[in-house]
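Input (structure):
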C-alpha cells in the first residue's frame, strides 16, 4: 500500500527505498537506532543487552534483549533483508537459551550494556523502577519470553511459521520496517503485521483457549473446580477457574487485607493476560464481546467508592501461576483443586 504526502492540490507519492540503497547497515545503523527507540517496534520494553551472548558452548548473539512491564524477557531479532532469512528459527533458539535467565544475570547484562553505551545509571534501580517493584522479585522475573522480529519484509515461510507457532502458544510478533524517501528526507514506516493490532486481543484469546483445550486433553485429572481457604477456613467451594480472580479479591476484601499497595497490585495484575480489575469505561469492545469481564452486571468489587469488574480469562497455566503468586504474597489464602 502506497503512502502519499498531502499537498495543496494533489497527493505526492512517497517513494519506497531499501536499507541497502540508503547504505544503512544492520548492526551499526538500524540496530543502533532501534536500540535507542525500542518503543517503535516493542512498546513498554526496556533494552537490557545488545549482542547478548553469555551462552555456554555457543557463539550466538541476540541482537537486542529486553524486559517488558510484566517482567517477561523480550528477544528482539533484526534483519535488513527483504525476506527475513531464517530469523524466526534463530529467535526461537535464543528464547530457549535465555529461558533460565535469573534476576542477577539480567542485572549483570544490563550493567555491561549501560557501561558500553556510556549511560551513568544504576542498573538495578532503573530496572526496579521500570517494573514498578520496590525490591527484586526473583520468582516473578522472566517466567515467560516473547519474541519480536523486525525486518524490511517477511517471506511467506516465516509468516506461516509464526502464525502456527503463535497458535501453539508462543508469543511472536513480526514488525515490518519499510524505509521511504521524500525529497531529502529518509522516513521509516513501522508496521506490526503479526498479530494485527486490531485483532490482537482476539488472537490472544484463541491462543489461550486452544492451549487450555490441549491441556485438558492431555491431563486426565479433572481440574475444573477450586476451593479457597482463608486462615484454614473454607471461604468458597467448588468454583470454576473463571472465578478465581473474583473470589480472591472478595476474600481479601472480606478479611480486610486490601490497602492501597495491595489494591495497586491487584488492579494491574495481568497473570491472565488481561488487567485483573477494570472500570466499565476501560473494557474494550473485544474484551466485552468475548465476555472477559461481567460488564453486563453491576460492578463486582468496590474500592474507595469506585466500582470494578474482575477478569475471567483463566486457563490451566495462568490459573496455576496466579495461585502460586497469591499464596506467596498472602499466606492467609490457600487454594485446592477439587
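Output (sequence):
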Amino acid at each position: 500500500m502506497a503512502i502519499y504526502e498531502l499537498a495543496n492540490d494533489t497527493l505526492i507519492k512517497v517513494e519506497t527505498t531499501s536499507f541497502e540503497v540508503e547504505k544503512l547497515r544492520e548492526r551499526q545503523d538500524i540496530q543502533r537506532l532501534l536500540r535507542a527507540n525500542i518503543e517503535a517496534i516493542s512498546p513498554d520494553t526496556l533494552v537490557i543487552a545488545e549482542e547478548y551472548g553469555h551462552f555456554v558452548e555457543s557463539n550466538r548473539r541476540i541482537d537486542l534483549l529486553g524486559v517488558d512491564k510484566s517482567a517477561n524477557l523480550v528477544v528482539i531479532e533484526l534483519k535488513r533483508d527483504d525476506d527475513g532469512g531464517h530469523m524466526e528459527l534463530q529467535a526461537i533458539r535464543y528464547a530457549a537459551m535465555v529461558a533460565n535467565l535469573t534476576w542477577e544475570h539480567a542485572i549483570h547484562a544490563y550493567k555491561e550494556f549501560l557501561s558500553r553505551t556510556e549511560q551513568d545509571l544504576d542498573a538495578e534501580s532503573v530496572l526496579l523502577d521500570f517494573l514498578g517493584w520496590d525490591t527484586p522479585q526473583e520468582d516473578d522475573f522472566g517466567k515467560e519470553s516473547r519474541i519480536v522480529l523486525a525486518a524490511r519484509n517477511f517471506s511467506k515461510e516465516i509468516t506461516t511459521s509464526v502464525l502456527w507457532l503463535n497458535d501453539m502458544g508462543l508469543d511472536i510478533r513480526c514488525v515490518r520496517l519499510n524505509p521511504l524517501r521524500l525529497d531529502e528526507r529518509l522516513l521509516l514506516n513501522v508496521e506490526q503485521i503479526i498479530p494485527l493490532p486490531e485483532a490482537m486481543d482476539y488472537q490472544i484469546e484463541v491462543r489461550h483457549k486452544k492451549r487450555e483445550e490441549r491441556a485438558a486433553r492431555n491431563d486426565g485429572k479433572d481440574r475444573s473446580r477450586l476451593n479457597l481457604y482463608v486462615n484454614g477456613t473454607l471461604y468458597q467451594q467448588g468454583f470454576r477457574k473463571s472465578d478465581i480472580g473474583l473470589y480472591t479479591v472478595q476474600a481479601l476484601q472480606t478479611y480486610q487485607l486490601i490497602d492501597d499497595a495491595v489494591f495497586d497490585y491487584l488492579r494491574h495484575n495481568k497473570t491472565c493476560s488481561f488487567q485483573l480489575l477494570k472500570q466499565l469505561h476501560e473494557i474494550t469492545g473485544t474484551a466485552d464481546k468475548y465476555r472477559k469481564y461481567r460488564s453486563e452486571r453491576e460492578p463486582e468489587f468496590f474500592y474507595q467508592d469506585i466500582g470494578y469488574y474482575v477478569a475471567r480469562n483463566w486457563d490451566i497455566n495462568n490459573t496455576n501461576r496466579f495461585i502460586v503468586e497469591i499464596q506467596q504474597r498472602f499466606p492467609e489464602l490457600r487454594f485446592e483443586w477439587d
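Notes: The chain has a mean pLDDT of 89. The CA atoms of residues 179 and 313 lie 39 Å apart.
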